Amino acid sequence: MDSLFDAAAEEAQRGHEPLAVRMRPRGLDEVIGQRHLLGPGTPLRRLVEAEAPMSLFLWGPPGTGKTTLAYVVAGVTKRRFVEVSAVSAGVKEVRAAIEQARRELGMSGRQTVLFVDEVHRFNKAQQDALLPAVENRWVTFIGATTENPFFSVISPLLSRSLLLTLESLSEEDIRGVLERAVADPRGLDGRLRLAPEATDHLVRLAGGDARRSLTYLEAAALIAEDEITVEVVERAVDKAAVRYDRQGDQHYDVVSAFIKSMRGSDADAALHYLARMVEAGEDPRFIARRIVIFASEDVGMADPTCLQVAVAAAQAVEFIGLPEGRLNLAQAVVHCALAPKSNAVITAIDAAAQDVRRGDIGQVPAHLRDAHYPGARGLGHGEGYRYPHDFEHGLVRQDYAPAELRDRRYYRPTKHGAEAAFADRWSRIRAFLRGQ
Description:
The protein has 436 residues and is α/β, with parallel strands linked by helices. The chain has helices spanning 2-16, 19-22, 35-38, 43-50, 66-76, 91-108, 124-135, 149-152, 155-159, 171-183, 196-206, 210-223, 230-237, 249-263, 267-279, 284-299, 305-320, 325-338, 344-358, 419-433; strands at 55-59, 80-85, 112-117, 140-145, 162-165, 193-194, 227-228.
């Protein structure tokens, strides 16, 4: 009788769990994405199938399956699952969990998975408390983190664990998560239809986060009658569908307007188009690449720091992803929009390339040729070369360009921003080098 009551209670509790919890995979083969970690012969699969004691760090963006993998490992290997939150737990709670795991191991031989979410939030003392359990394999320790563990986890703990890096889920992965949730008895059990356009919208809103996609799907299902449409999703999650086809005209039109707004120094307009791309699910790395190109093509030497900011934003996006990465992109966009503008760099390289394509290349002056290999000196290579560092101001008059191109001008700096100082310096240097 008690067992029937417990089963009924468990079933009732399961019905009240969030959709994302109900849809957690029950085995490695049900996990969507992370194929590089789950394929035949991979370390994680070998460790699980061998049921060997292990310690893991799972590092990746939110919603990529870190908690899911921890549950799967515990379920497949029939281990106890104990979850500790690094946000609220202290050394006392960690030691209590470890002690309980030791007792369980000693009494029944059953191992425990100790899962620590947001493990990067643990301080050194809390991480030190984990060391004996990891070293003596009293628990199977699994730590999940969205931050680089090489900066946030103590070396002794990291060196005793296997580090697995999770990747953002692809659009097809998220689509698979949604389709399974609609059809699976643990999910919507086929009670509602999911319109293709609504699927596309949910995929965009998810931004590679499976948990977010299921949360939005569940919210939409609560107010849908027989079909989840784009309009239903918009009402449920208070996010309008951005009409944006990454393979169509909207993609090119918005990107074009984005670049031209920065070129025109309209920071507000540029931010609008940035937000439009981000909200539509555009790849943030694509946006970052366009900003890096812009920094040299449209700002150049008028503000040399613009390229530094753009590259830093691109690296930040790669490091932290979305949604936080939009802040770095926005900072770079504002910097680029408000910077003084110059297209002198792209004009210069294009002009030089045009000459090369026409065949106007000439011979490298003999005194500039490589003189390091045997016999080069006998050919006159390097003879007469004057080392600039031996001269005042690091300048010495000699020919650098081929004779045929000696008077060709490529770089024509503007007087905008910092380039004004470079223009003045280049004018004086060029006159000196050419004896003018």
